[in-house]
Amino acid sequence: MMALALKTPLKILNNPGRNELRRLSQREETTTAYGAPAYFTLKSASRSASSTQMLADRPLGLGQTPANPDAVRYAEDMLEKILPQLELIQIDRVIGNNNRKTWHCRLLIPKEYARIALLWSETLFEASPSQRDPQTKPDFLTIDIPNWPEAFPSANGTNKIGPKGIFVRADEGKTYIFGTDYVGEVKMSFLRQAMYQMKKAGGLGLHAGSKILKLKNASGALENIGVLLFGLSGTGKTTLTLESHGLKTPEGIELLQDDIVWMTTTGEALGTEDNFYVKTEGVSKDTQPGIDLALLDPGTVFENVSVNEKSKMPEFLNFSRGTNGRALAIRRKIPGSSDEINLNKVHKIFFITRRDTIVPPVAKLTPRQAAAYFMLGESIETSAGDPTKAGQPKHEVGFNPFIIGREDEEGKRIGDIIQANSIECFLLNTGSLGKNGDQNLPPKKITQQVSSKIIEMVSRNAISWTKDSDWGYETAVKVPDLSSWSADYDPRRYYSSAAYQQLTQELKTERSEFLARYRFELPTN
Predict the structure, then answer these.
(1) What is the tally of structural domains in the chain?
(2) Residues 246 and 104 in one domain
(3) Pick the residue with more confidence: 379 or 468?
(4) Which of 55, 278, 365, 457 would be a feasible disulfide site paired with 370, CB 3.0-4.6 Å?
(5) Are 126 and 234 within one domain?
(6) Is 201:157 a contact under the CB 8 Å cutoff?
(7) Which pLDDT tens digit goes with each residue over 164-209?
(8) 426, 455 Cβ separation under 8 angstroms
(9) 50-61 burial code (b ≥16 CB/10 A, e <16)
(10) Which residues contact residue 406 at a Cβ distance below 8 angstroms, ignoring those fewer than 6 apart?
(11) Do the strands 260-263 and 276-279 form a parallel or antiparallel pair, or are they unpaired?
């Protein structure tokens, strides 16, 4: 299929700065008490996954919708017609900050949607003068037409896109977005393309947070322990990525990334973004103090976050604008962050799930098991996601809804990287134990403090383990500083033997059936 080829010169405002973008967005701005802009989407408050179609130069996976060639051709024909009629903003940015591989990204968007350009432009790194030249070809191009189709009456009667459509041309590094004004759609259009290219190059793009725990070893010397944390929405991934673990100087953490990293065959996790596009739902001084502090900075940009009419303070617990409020958090304003975004060595990986019956707070996995749990991408649906399915099992391969290509390739690839680099992997349950138990014991919530302590003690190699006869992974016998471990955190205490075995079989069946779709098995070793 022929790719988009614009023949008519475009009217472009080339890489306006933050102040100019904010000026252009003034009519939509609500200004907070400390001078940060807040904006509200008019068409979409989240990504439009069901409207996303893909065209790649390799076979697609089970979770991806192949693009309709006629619709893609129509979309490109429409862009060739309508782009010359518009005043466009061009923004060039760079994914990554390393001497190995970075990607030049270019966004073209109508001038009246400067607020989208403003927020997205702050997430990545500055482009060079040569990259900002409109004649320079970027690695990835996204063209965003949020006001489709209402602004283009000539499309009436011929519209093959529908009210919205996202066309991912992974074969060309291009994405065409129609009919949505959500910044996350633009942000992930570039990161999705880069993850695909990383996979083609032998590495892997991962939807994970990264950090370093600086801990004293047995001789008192500080060691850097590199950690990756995977988790679906609602599992606590961002909270635990930013968690300080109560470490005291000279020990501490170094926060690197909270969303997407590139894992190399040698066990590095290279960062992608300069600042974070965080979910604000429930943020407070108690739950996420680092993010709460960073969001008080005037450099913040809010999207779909309620602002009090009188005090002009953002209200993270007010969901009148929906539960997917977002904000640009300046990374250097978050305690524990630095100028570094790259992790030179991954030592520990945590796959975070949220279950409420028999999954232990932590389990140590073999490399084969780790690859399987990566494929499971396991959690339960939350009320913030789909209230009608709250509590039901939920799976997303690799904890990553942005995969292009066959999913089983990703599972095999991460298993190989884990094995080759002796990376230790763990399943971390941030839910609870004992739901509907039959031993007259109340369910036990696994708190943020408990999960934080587990991550710390795993990183110190301070936990004693024993093999679980039902699952084949290892579970913790005791965890330092958690004195009630055996009394509170053994799932078997909450159920009779028959009830426990029934729940075990049901969970094994659920997991095995999901993995079988991708030609994976649930290993016992």
Answers:
(1) 2
(2) no
(3) 468
(4) 365
(5) no
(6) no
(7) 999 999 999 999 999 999 999 999 999 999 999 999 999 999 999 9
(8) no
(9) ebbbbbbeeebb
(10) 58, 59, 60, 61
(11) unpaired
